[in-house]
């Protein structure tokens, strides 16, 4: 498959809720492969389809040696929280402490349409919540407390990549009206 360009902060696709996957076909399997290749090349712990300009509810993850993906996730979050550093491939080079649920149960499907349940805590729980947020058009900086969010926005505006013309190519995947 292939490595795709990652959309950066400011791209409208990152703020748009992704559509549920309805066709578990070869296109979806190619999307999962491209997400995996792109995530590993970055490298990152997770990557959601909107981050490569595809408005579908799919993400991949690679946490503590576990490689996987989830389609159409639904989360059940613990009431116990964790607080720690979080970054994003769409906000490169920056990390900020963010509050998340300590554990998560994620239900969804694999790329073949088979039901999947992922239970995770700590970093895996953080990753699953972060990537599912992307599918809902939410960035982790939206979850920061007021003071940290203000510092994050200042750092983003000062980042070398901010405001640069996007380096895009046409995605080989259906975009459901998103992207170019």
Briefly, what is this?
With 180 residues, the protein is an alpha+beta fold. It is built from three helices and seven strands.
What this model shows, in words?
The protein is α+β, with helices and mostly antiparallel strands and 180 residues long. It is built from three helices and seven strands. The longest helix is centred in the N-terminal third of the chain and has 16 residues, at 26-41.
> What's the multimeric state?
single chain
> Rg from C-alpha positions?
15 Å
> SS-based structural class?
alpha+beta
Helix-strand topology string: HEEEEEEEHH
Give the N-terminus to C-terminus distance in angstroms. 20 Å
- Sheet of most strands: 5 strands, antiparallel
Percent of sequence in beta strands: 25-35%
Task: List strands and helices in order, with pairings.
Layout: H1 26-41, E1 46-48, E2 58-63, E3 66-77, E4 81-88, E5 91-101, E6 103-109, E7 115-121, H2 122-135, H3 146-158
